[in-house]
């Protein structure tokens, strides 16, 4: 059984219907500091038993979570639709992604390559001194605090990528559920609890704490038993957690995925050949899911000319036709309106087009703005994220302008090149600049799709994330929750199983630096 | 040619003879903020050309540095002997280690596994959506600031492990030379400059800045072009750099190796069988190099009984016979004396033995103290490092006492078990505790030898280091200066060479998560 921290108080904390802004359903119990302490104590107690389980047992737990999520049936999809305002097809797809992610990490655990096993055998005859036997594996950091995101109530929330990768690494998880979808979170947490019971996991391997406000999250990050933090959300929220973690007597890593405007560079030949098509495709990427993606294309760079005119014309037409859809929460909608208003009223910014109003009270009306290179470089606020379907086009005069803007840009999750074969030379000069600014570089696609795979990096230099050495999507995400330990001259019975001579072949290992 | 930052001022900053405390040789030019800016600008300009070189070119540079260090001949050994007070044999061995480390990283660069190449081929037929081609490699972070250590004037200083691993990763390096060995540092820097010229490296790939005081280091860490910091030294120094790095507009990683007391646990059967031999071997490890090792055994835990009495008797005898040797600097000697005095005058600490005086003005007299579990747990200062040949024995009553002390201990570089076969059960219960406290666990050896190899971890949880997810010794140290980047749907000419189809087989890669 997993620990559900005891409930300290009844409350008026309820689900909000994203469409109407009205509360619905029963109030949720709100967790307080005593619940945080209880959940963290249980997670700490679970850590050694959980990390010591045979890998197959942990893999089976992850697989079972995926199955229990599916077994929640349509109740889960309906709860998520009502709380997030996102449409059914999107949430069904997101459920599939969430399950796929858990099953992929189960495979990673089975394979065991993530342990990074290295063996340097003893060299008893070495001169002037013999070398002792030294073996290395990576071990999990300890209990992990996960802060779910509002914009992916399934794939980046209670049983999302951070939870899956931390559990895979061998870390118990304490989730601070996102207050924008408490019902969805509670359903998913119940699925994890069922899976833990069914696969006989140690008590405390998972806990789900909920409540409005920031006190709960603060107490969680400050708890001395928490060894790392995963977060997806705003820059303000991420930096606040980072500061708390750094100020602890024992500082801990924070993996905060915070903000990105995901520059898209339209290169001249591509613009010439298909400016209109690019304008239409761009708006489709911009407005998908009310623009509520970390990888939304919020910045467009292009050199002025006929091709750009065609792009703008097509994008303008598509924006004008776009109908606003419901945003995740009233707060996100208000922040979006404020961000858009700041751009609209900025002296150096031109409003290219606004979309049509929608039907709900929190519909985000799409927006496209344009500005000059000088204005963009002068006012750093123009480079800040406006979370939602808003984008800013920076009109460049030449390639040098592209370089200036990109060199001045903050760290990003993604950077995209729209290019034709004739753009290869200019693109080759841009790639080294983009590599230093982003975690993922795309050609002729749009950044809003993020594959869950082995080669994916969903990360990037600060302030896109708080730690650009990592990714929060894809199998490499497990690295965030591991650290290496060397074992020198330990007799077989004391060695971890994967390091014993008998385990050769069962997990990938480097022997004296060579696969074997 | 490498950049030697221009010299801004003559000074009275000179080498100090460790034995006599007297200055010798010509004064060194002291670098200031303008030199820092110039070196960082040159390093930034060198970054793209340097990281883009074929791997073989960078490997040849590392090999050549090793050769140029050897070509400095006896002048290097004599300078280091005089500045550090360390004996010839030790420094000749350390030179070999420094060269071996550079050559090992050259091999790592040639092999290319450090790039972590992953390829997920396109799946054009996938339903409901095709998958695009996604490829991943790791790229270097950017220019790295290296702060050399005083206790390894060769292997952890100007061309030491941090420099070697950063250059191997593809990062230009700006060294803040340790003020305790400016002549040694200048000689090694000249060897690196020669190697850079001989192998035609870009200007600015390496710079060496020197001066007393902290202003130089502060300016270096605050320079916006510096992307990461490597440091070996005191806890105070490491934490100061960490705070500077975190307060930058763009925070950067700091790899500070700071302090450790390296607990040694003497298990009952081993004590019974060979208490006397253990006591003698312990003092040998404790007093080697005047105890000036990060991995010096500064804490001994054992359960009281006959075996422990024999250990103490033998250790006492060996300490009484030990003759003090010159410490690295007057400052280090003064801090040692202060630390030892604090223990000697502590109400709950008994002085077991002090060694004999030595001949120089800064000789560190060995010291062994003893205390109770209660006293150790009550006063956290008893767990702080005294850098030098001082150790504290904590008398335990039972296994539970061992657990209590170890659970309360701070993060460590190493933890050692002295054990016989009959101690296996108690050792098996200790290993999971030690794994959470240390980067390396040893059985029946002493922590003071640190192999430079693939499976070595010289790192550990805070405050042993500022980032327990890494190591500063061994080939895994290169990971500190890399971050992953994904390339999605990029045409061959834009892909980095190692990611192209034609490069399959030239570097290890994972294809869809499998070696291939």
From TrEMBL, chains A, B:
Keyword Nucleus: no
Domain of life: Bacteria
InterPro entries in UniProt: Ald_DH/histidinol_DH, Ald_DH_C, Ald_DH_N, Aldehyde_DH_dom, Aldehyde_DH_Superfamily, ALDH_KGSADH
Keywords: Oxidoreductase
Keyword Iron: no
CDD domains, per database record: ALDH_KGSADH
Positions of the Aldehyde dehydrogenase domain: 12-320
Name of this protein: Aldehyde dehydrogenase (NADP(+))
Species per Swiss-Prot/TrEMBL record: Sphingomonas morindae
């Amino acid at each position: 059984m997993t620990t559900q921290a005891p409930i300290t108080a009844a409350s008026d904390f309820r689900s909000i219907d994203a469409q109407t802004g009205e509360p619905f359903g029963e109030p949720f119990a709100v967790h307080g500091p005593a619940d945080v302490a209880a959940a963290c104590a249980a997670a700490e107690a679970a850590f050694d038993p959980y990390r010591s389980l045979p890998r197959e047992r942990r893999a089976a737990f992850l697989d079972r979570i995926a199955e229990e999520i599916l077994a929640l049936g349509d109740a889960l999809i309906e709860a998520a639709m009502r709380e997030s305002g996102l449409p059914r097809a999107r949430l069904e797809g997101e459920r599939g992604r969430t399950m796929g992610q858990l099953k992929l990490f189960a495979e990673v655990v089975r394979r065991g390559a993530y342990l990074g096993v290295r063996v340097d055998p003893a060299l008893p005859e070495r001169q002037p001194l013999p070398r002792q036997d030294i073996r290395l594996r990576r071990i999990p950091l300890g209990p992990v605090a996960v802060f779910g995101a509002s914009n992916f109530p399934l794939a980046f929330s209670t049983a999302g990528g951070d939870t899956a990768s931390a559990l895979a690494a061998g870390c118990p998880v304490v989730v601070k559920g996102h207050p924008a979808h408490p019902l969805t979170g509670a359903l998913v947490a119940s699925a994890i609890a069922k899976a833990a019971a069914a696969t006989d996991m140690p008590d405390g391997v998972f806990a789900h704490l909920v409540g409005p406000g920031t006190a709960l999250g603060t107490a969680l990050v400050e708890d001395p038993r928490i060894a790392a933090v995963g977060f997806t959300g705003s820059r303000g929220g991420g930096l606040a957690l980072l500061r708390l973690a750094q100020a602890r007597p024992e500082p801990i890593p924070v993996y905060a995925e915070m903000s990105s405007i995901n520059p898209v560079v339209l290169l001249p030949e591509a613009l010439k050949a298909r400016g209109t098509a690019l304008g239409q495709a761009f708006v489709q990427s911009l407005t998908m899911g009310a623009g509520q993606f970390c990888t939304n294309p919020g910045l467009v760079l292009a050199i002025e000319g006929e091709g750009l005119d065609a792009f703008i014309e097509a994008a303008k037409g598509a924006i004008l036709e776009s109908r606003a859809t419901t945003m995740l929460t009233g707060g996100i909608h208000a922040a979006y309106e404020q961000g858009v208003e700041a751009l609209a009223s900025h002296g150096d910014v031109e409003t290219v087009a606004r979309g049509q109003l929608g039907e709900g009270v929190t519909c985000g009306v799409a927006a496209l703005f344009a500005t000059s290179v000088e204005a963009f470089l002068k006012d750093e606020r123009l480079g800040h994220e406006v979370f939602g379907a808003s984008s800013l086009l920076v009109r460049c005069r030449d390639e040098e302008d592209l370089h200036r803007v990109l060199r001045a840009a903050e760290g990003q999750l993604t950077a995209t090149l729209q290019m034709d074969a004739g753009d290869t030379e200019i693109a080759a000069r841009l790639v080294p600049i983009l590599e230093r600014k982003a975690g993922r570089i795309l050609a002729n696609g749009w950044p809003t799709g993020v594959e869950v795979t082995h080669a994916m990096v969903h990360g990037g230099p600060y302030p896109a994330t708080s730690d650009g050495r990592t990714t929060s999507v894809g199998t490499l995400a497990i690295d965030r929750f591991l650290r290496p330990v060397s074992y020198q001259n330990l007799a077989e019975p004391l060695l971890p199983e994967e390091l014993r001579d008998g385990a050769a072949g069962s997990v990938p290992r480097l022997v004296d630096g060579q696969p074997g």
